[in-house]
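Weekend entry, working from home. Most of the wet-lab plans are on hold until the incubator is repaired, so I used the time to fold the two sequences that have been sitting in the queue since the last round of cloning. Logging both here for the record. First:
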Amino acid sequence: MCEVCGCANPYRPGARLAPAVAPKAGTLHFGMGPAGVEVAGLSQSRVIEIQEDILGRNDSIAARNRVAFAGAGVLALNLVSSPGSGKTTLLVETLTKLAGAQPVAVIEGDQQTDFDAERIRATGAPAIQVNTGRGCHLDATMIERALEKLPVPANGVLFIENVGNLVCPSGFDLGEAHKVVVLSVTEGEDKPLKYPDMFAAADLMLLTKIDLLPHLRFDVERCCVFARQVNPAIEIIRVSSVSGEGMADWLSWIEQHRPRAAPLVPAAAKHRAWRTPA
């Protein structure tokens, strides 16, 4: 899908991205060129041109979304993760605890089905399902069109649950205030180094399913070191939707960031450089 939509590497003029790592012996690395990806039949300059065009159009619409959020006092959060991280379960638990405390709404992104939107609506929160078909991420146009059917929750929180994918959503600004990357302890502590652009773009990492730690060989501290190696400024909260551990910290983070909802800063400016272990 990356070669179809041009989102393999979130190229933007002046953006600081996770640089390609020099390949070791026995490794083929197709991300060493200026575009960060190779596409059969296209030069690096042509790939960059396509990426600039796609992301430039997306960013102009994201800017409109950001203005709408700021005008309504809405904190828009873009929840990103791989499939199976527990993102929807965490969101359901979050909405249950926020019920009646502040206005909320949810935009659900998946390639197919409305299973997750139905789970969200069961909490009493308004939600709209966005199916991307063969698309691998939500984009700003999808959010703008969703908002035509799902009014923003004035002075509240809009949760955008992106398509399960640790690659492509990192490069697409939706107009959100923050990207929140959800990583479960069942996935392995090396994910921040394997998928650095996502962790570089996020302001917060929610480490989920920590109730399972006694049954796993997952090094929490090593995972946190890797995440901060990619993004020294990233905040980390350990949470369990089952035991409730860390939920108060997550809800407090949301409340603390509400006054700073949707700052008028392009998400592209949030990309940070990183380097791998020596």
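Second, folded right after the first finished:
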Amino acid sequence: MRKQILKIGLFSFLIMLTVVSCNMPDNNTDPNVLYTLAASTIQAENNRIASLTPPTPTATATNTPTVTPTFTVTPTPTIAPTATLIVHPAGAAEVLILFYNDVANDAQDDPYYQWESPLNVPSIEFEQQVRVLSELGYQSIGISQLVKVLLEGGELPEKPVMFTFDSTKRGQFVNAYPILKKYGMVGNLMLDGTQVDTKNCLSSEQIREMMDSGWEIGGTGQEIGKTKASLQEKFDVDILAYSYPGGIPDGEGKMYASVSNNLYRAAFGKQHFTKQTMNTLFYLGRYEITKGLPYNDFLSYLPWKDGNISDETLNWTQPKATLAAPVAETQGAPDTEAIGEVTAVP
């Protein structure tokens, strides 16, 4: 760069000499005029050269590209429909209460299982009944909800159903518990406190697991007061309700008096009605469900039948039993009436 400037300066000086020599005035010219002439000539040449020198480039700012943020679309969570709740004044409410003795298929489910007993409801029948109720919009409730509504008033689902199991046998944990859980429902165990944690019966751990998922417990059995105390001590909950063994109290009213004296708040019978009131608080109506109950009979128990039941549920069939009652050895033909067969659900 310095060499270029020197060259330009030398070139300008030579031009100036040429111009001055070509226009040299005579000896009589004023020196000041010569100086002014030379200076103006040099300035004009410098201006010309400057016009030929390319300008110093101005730095151009490089724009940093703007990064457009990428948004990850988060799916909107599916919100379960909120139950329609009905406010009931104290004293009455319509509630369907179902009464099961045991949900068992064989001796593996329940060592006390007897194939000929109608009290052992097969799990496939039980699931069909639960599916029907679920598809028609029934929602399960617990003992505490019913007792509170009858005594104080409160809210219940539009179609409330209670599942009660009057047994301390294992079938409730093995079969009823997972089936109800599958359809978002809960049950109520009516336990004999003297049988919990005994051989082939429900253990405290199994019962607590069911309670943790929403199940509630009540008492049953002959030891009315002892059962209540035992269950409250084991599970640290207030035992509000009692179920008469088999759903039937004694005719003299002694069981009723004992239930009341032991501070139960309600008791379950097995009369067929759904209008639960203060007048029936110690004999709440229930429908006993037994093995082989025809589908139409089950439907007849339901106070609310509006809604749609899927074809899959309607066609829910039960395989025929492979076990038969032993046939006594006789000289004649076997007694065909002794051969048992589980009745299929229509």
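Plan for Monday: verify the second prediction. The chain has ten helices and 14 strands.
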